[in-house]
Each structure stands twice: as structure tokens, then as C-alpha cells.
UniProtKB/TrEMBL annotation:
This is ATP synthase protein I2. It comes from the Bacteria. It comes from Croceivirga thetidis. The chain crosses the membrane at residues 7-26, 38-60, 67-90, 102-120. Keywords: Membrane, Transmembrane, Transmembrane helix. InterPro entries: DUF6168 (IPR046166). It holds the Pfam family DUF6168.
Amino acid sequence: MARLPLIFLGVLMLSLLVAFGLHLFALQSNNLPLWDNLIATSYVINFILAALIFLIIYFLKDRLSNAMGFLFMAGSLLKFLVFFLVFYPVYKSDGVTDKLEISAFLIPYLIALVLETFYASKLLNSLEK
């Protein structure tokens, strides 16, 4: 179980890098701007937040085992706060939020969320044993 954070960070990094590459490839294939909509920032911030949230949960698992769900939800709240402080103003600056802006944030967010949920579940299941 001590290797779980390293495994999580590796899988998260690899998954987001592959998704980022595919995302850029899809944009380029459709002759769309590659670096608009804070796309790189979105992938980096989602990696950092997912890593931070998982590591906090991991290191507090013994002391706050009954509050793991609340910590996970607090992490989700933090992600929403970052979205509304960093991304939302930029996306709304022209009065329209288009599909490219939504996908620039949502793709890395969902990948990170799925991996966080999966690995946090593994962590919590290991506490019950």
C-alpha cells in the first residue's frame, strides 16, 4: 500500500500526457488553434490538484479515516473553486463558452476525477482489511 501514491501519480501523469497529446492531435487535425483556451494550464492544474488531493487523503488516512469522504468532497470543492477563479473568467470574457473551451477543461478534469476516485476507493478498501 506504500507504493499506491507513486502508482497513482504515474498513472495520472501518463494518462494526462496521453490525453493531452491526443487532444492536441485532434485540434491540429481539425485545423483548430492548439494553445488557446488555457489547454496546457488546464492539464497542469488538474494534475496538480488531483495529486494534491490524493496525497492529502493518503497521508491523513490513519488519523482521519472516518472523514475520507469529506476530504474527497473538499477536494472536489477546491477544483470547482479553481475553475471559477482561473478558467471561468477567461472562458466567459467573450460572452460565450464554446465546445473547445469546455473540452480544454473538462477532458483533463474527468480523467483526473476518474483516476482519483478509483485510487481513493482502493485506498479506502485497504483500510477496511
